Every structure is written in C-alpha cells, then in structure tokens.
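User: For documentation purposes, I need each entry recorded in a consistent format: the amino acid sequence on its own, followed directly by the corresponding structure tokens. There are two entries in this batch. Please keep commentary to a minimum and don't merge the entries.

Assistant: Recorded as requested. Entry 1:
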Amino acid sequence: MRTTISAKLINITAAALMGSPLLFGANAARAANSIVARVSLSQQVMEVSVDGRPTFAWKVSTGDRAHVTPTGSFKPTRMHEMWYSKKYDNAPMPHSVFFSGGYAVHATYAIKRLGQPASHGCVRLHPDNAADFYQLVETFGPANTSIVIVK
C-alpha cells in the first residue's frame, strides 16, 4: 500500500515538474526532471535530489571489507522490477537499478544491516525506499538520473 501511495505521489510530482518549463521558460527546461542519487560510503546514506532539491535521505548498505562498491558518477544501464543474482546463488534483488556491470541499487530483506557495509558491492535499500527510487528512475528516465558514489 505504501509503495502505491508513494508511486502516485512521485507520478504527481513528475507531472507537475514536466509543466515547469512552460511556466518558467527555457532555463527551467534544462534543469527540470533530473534526479541525482548521492551515495556516501562513509556515512552509508543515499541522498536523492529531484531538480536540485533534496527530497529523500535513506540508509543503505554498500560493499563490505571484502567487496568494493565502485565510486564515481554513473547512469542507470538497465532496470528490473525483480532480478535474481546469477553470481550469488540466485539472491533476490527487487527493484534493481543497475549502474555499472553487475552493480545495482536494489532492495534488501536484511534491513537490520542498513546503515553499515554489508553487501557484495551493490547499494542496498529498504524495500519501500528501493520501490520509490525505482519508480523515480522509471518516471524521470535513466537518461535524467545520475548515481554518484563517493567515499
């Protein structure tokens, strides 16, 4: 239910923002409809800005000591509402937004581990937050989304 409500709010927000170029001119057209998801490895937090405005801040789990999460700026390369890891025993990866090879932002059921490194390199989110992020990327488009991972 929460995911449905969040998705509707995101869709309403997207529709409202799509009209902003008409109201505010061409400069707004360049700025409108962009998402930046900034992941801090040291803080284990993902902050999502929509059109430059901080919108969400969520706890994450990134790579543990034995598994690196790549740093840099990425664009989503593919999305799957449900994916199963071919590398890690068909582990479920709901609401996957892949950004570099096999690395993705996705939901985890190990929510007690959020806020600390625990993954094999992916960025793990609470299932509700992963569903919201997936919906944001789907609504605004991968080309208008940046995933920035910093130390």
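Entry 2:
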Amino acid sequence: MTHPAYETVARVPTVSEYLRLRALAGLSAFSEEAATKGLAGTLFSVVVEHENSAVGMGRLIGDGGCFVQVVDIAVDPRFQGQGLGKAIMSALTDYIANSLPASAYVSLIADVPAHKLYEKFGFKETAPRSLGMARRAG
C-alpha cells in the first residue's frame, strides 16, 4: 500500500494483534491457545500498520501446493473505507500468483457484503456446483 499513513508488511500478526483485530472486526473469537497454534500454521500473512499499530490483517493457510484458503481478513472499523481491505487482498493475491503452483485451489468463505471485495480479486461463487460447509471441533 502506498498511502503514507499506512504500511502493508508481510508478517504474521502477534497473538494479541490477531485476537484484537478479530474482535474489532466482529469475527468469531478464539482462545489464546488456539490462536497461537493457528498462527504457527500460516503460509503467508500481511499486517497493515498505522503509527506502529496493527490496524488490518489477512492470512493464507494450507499446504502451499494443492489447497490454500484465504482467512482472517480483518480491518479495525475506525480504519475501514480507506482501501485497507483492498491492500490486504492485493498482497495476498500477489503471493498467490507468484508463489503458488498454477493448479493450486484457493478458496475462502465470504461474509456478505465482503464477497464484493473478493470478486474484484477473481474469486467466484461456487454454488450450485459446490457449497461451503463448516463445523466447530467441539
């Protein structure tokens, strides 16, 4: 991102940044233990920083060859509407295009209306051919 007030950095968020940004963005909560384990499995991640504070993030998880999933796209609501989500997705899709095999299947679960952002980066709905499904471990 080129906006002088923000810097998009290729790094994994800290556990505290991760939990804070998920909460601020209204995403489901995880325990510190779960976040620590999950972040260790990051394939690639970016953090948007403003005045040395994380205000946005996005991650790629998966095996790095066959299957990759876009997760944790989160921007602090105080900073939304300034193109930070686009900057995060741009960095992630650059990694996808330049570092993954062309045959890799890259997926995500999109909340409405965020799906409009993902469409701008080439993601398409898979229904009715396939439907996303999910469950909790416990």
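Summary note for entry 2:
Strands lie at 7-10, 42-50, 53-62, 67-75, 105-108.
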